[in-house]
Amino acid sequence: MSKQKLVIIGNGMVGHRFIEEFVDKGGLEHFDIVTFCEEPRVAYDRVHLSSYFSHHTADELSLVKEGYYQKHNIEVFVGERALTINRAEKVIHSQTGRAIFYDKLIMATGSYPWVPTIKGNESKDCFVYRTIEDLNAIESTARRSKSGAVIGGGLLGLEAAGALKALGVETHVIEFAPVLMAEQLDQQGGQILRSKIESIGVNVHTGKNTKEIVASGETARNTMQFADGSELEVDFIVFSTGVRPQDKLAKQCGLATARRGGISIDDQCVTSDPDIFAIGECASWNEKFFGLVAPGYSMAKVAVDTLLGNENAFAGADMSAKLKLLGVDVGSIGDANGRTPNCKSYVYLDGNKSIYKRLIVSEDGKKLLGAVLVGDSSSYSDLLQYKLNDIELPKHPDALILPSHSGAEKVGLGVDALPETAQVCSCFDVKKSDISEAVAAGHTTIGAIKMETKAGTGCGGCVPLITQVLNAELKKQGVEVKNHICEHFEYSRQELFHLIRIGGIKTFKELLNKYGKGYGCEVCKPTVGSILASCWNDFVLTKDHNGLQDTNDIFLGNMQKDGTYSVIPRMAGGEVTPKGLAVVAKVADQYALYTKITGAQRIGLFGAHKSDLPDIWQQLIDAGFETGQAYAKALRMVKTCVGSTWCRFGVQDSVGLGVELENRYKGLRTPHKIKFGVSGCTRECAEAQGKDVGIIATDSGWNLYVCGNGGMKPQHASLLAADLDKETLVKYLDRFMMFYVRTADKLMRTSVWLQNLEGGIEYLKDVITSDKLGINEQLEKEMAEAINSFQCEWTTALSDKEQLSRFSHFINSDLQDDNVVFTPERGQKRPAFIEEKAPTYNITLEEMK
Amino acid sequence: MSKWNPVCALDKVYPATGVCALIEGKQVAIFRPSEDEQIFAMDNMDPFARSNVLSRGIICEHKEQLWVASPLKKQRFNLADGSCLENEDVSVATYKTRVKEGNIEVQL
Fold it and tell me: How far apart are the CA of B54 and the nearest CA of chain A, in angstroms?
């Protein structure tokens, strides 16, 4: 029997999800698939649309793996709209005149933004917020604008406002209702959200009915006129006033539609025509349509099962939501407005930090009906489980929303309390039992669970819960969680650290013989090299250690793309004398080095030949400089502001402390690089809270912040202790640094380390300030040893003739690498591009094939 | 072309490291994985970055074979045949070596 033809109109998130599900369940055995995609690109993640402004690549948002459709012989008509459906002939005509016959048809046409009929809403300064094309248009307009307004203070409106704010325009939110997010939040919750949003500089106008947009203004291009007679001048306007089901095509072909719009479907997602299904936002089930992606995914699943003869039924959807809007955590569960008759509420309000939490419970106090969380949504997943699984509430339900410092007993919902049928991931409808089964089948990492069950690959909000289920299952099975560093050592970095320290192991070979196997590799060698250096502070360039050192350590400089090196002498706290500067300048001039101030408050010289490094460093060291260890996973530097010595606002000597700390911890090898910041007052000019260690002066001492990061994933540092005198500060720092060195994984920055530390910052406080583990004396002793054995690696290297011979480019010639070629740029030089270099004996990739 | 080119004394290359030699105008990376006399030679140019750096990479073992990880972006090249672990379309030329009377020699 020949295959039937299945046509899907619409290649949005739900349309694509349907295809994936259909392919996974073996539907291609019975059907050939054709899909229409009206937009100029295949399915992408509309939920995270705003992130497009930060990375600007549609690829990042794409939901379709490269080559997926080709691989499965699925025909996609991109940029082509289905114009008409002829149900009698079972044929679809597209805008290009194409005619496609179908046996079964899936409507996944989604929704369209609804724009109220306001005079002037068709101006070129008016936008909607739905597609990548919309975003491109908004961005280019924002570039020539000072201000913008979003009409609509709902979920998507606030998301759009966040985008406007990020684009750097003065941002206004206009809401018709008296509160923000009226659908999801109660009055008080909306109020708190408003004050939080206003505090970051977004202007909120509620109870405003926009009457007209006039294309003129005194300070901006347009004037918005409201029903109450007030006005607001803005350059452009984004409408986010809700969506409506896209049911035009259905109406054209005479399918039944719902009163409030949407293609009517039954529990199997079948429309009034038994050969046509409708799924996602275009469908109306029991006179309801769902503007979220999770119900659409559920419908896709039901439609696939029905088509393939499996029993399944759509049973409505939970509309709970957890999100971060303009940096504010918001959660809404079930009956957030407390509309159930005789329900009771528990409310927690922290006016200081703008945190609001409300529980709505049943009359008998046993079941959770709804919840509102603003400012802190950490209890969202627990509460959602109570709601979805009808779990009986604890005796004092308020304990679920009270902060830990209130002394309330902790009644966290252990994953064991969840029934096997509990839905853990609502995006992909994954149950706890699905995860248990996946673990039992040998998928024992979060990554593997995600691949196997798809759980956590939608909005990602359930990943912490999946992790809990995973760990609980592993524990049950007695499985140990593996974090071996590589195939040569069946140990984690932390375990290797202890084996090395306790066993007094001094070389890689010794460790490999005792605890490893094979030869070693580019992963374990540098890791062990770093641990050996942390433990014994031995010189990294000895015959035993040379072969372990990573790219930068092995020649004590950062290798640049052309194989040359950078030279960065230490300038502790950012201090440098005019005499020192003159020496740096002379050396840079002599060796024609490109010179710039690095991001670390010091001077970097770039483009040095390996063979010139010893001479360059000899001159710098003779002038009193020492290595800045910019090449090492070690303390890099301490950034300081000018401090009380000079600054008229400073309250403490931040430079003095910064210099002292940099000199104290310099050279200590750490699992990843470490940066410090010291600010002399609360203005925080040293940006210390974005550093691994941040110290901020107070009137009575120093506040110590830890585990911040400004790099790839910015992270604010957490307060470890406040108002410390210097002696205590240094003691805490010794302990903190050594504890990190001991327990972090390879290449793990402090921010990630803290995230993975069970118990988080509270636990870290217990360890560092009240010696919970009883190891502080040991930590301080180890740090003292490390500090006492510091050496300037370049000074040591220069005194070792044999090591120095390694620096020439050729073992058998004094020539330099003739492939290192420079081009002038802005009065200095840069590495020449390949096409700028004289054709030497370079081999091209093509020739080698 | 079967000439053996003397390079340097074996002792000059520390075990577990590499060096770069200039042989008939060509940059050749020479590796000594262990204490013994086993020596490998290949072109010094990293074909991805087109920079002469391979001799400065870490020698590593995967799939029971020896490789060098480029110091720039860590692609691994097989010491014996020059193939690349990350991209089978890429390889570097390798050369025959021997140790004669304590000296390393390479045949281009």
Answer: 10
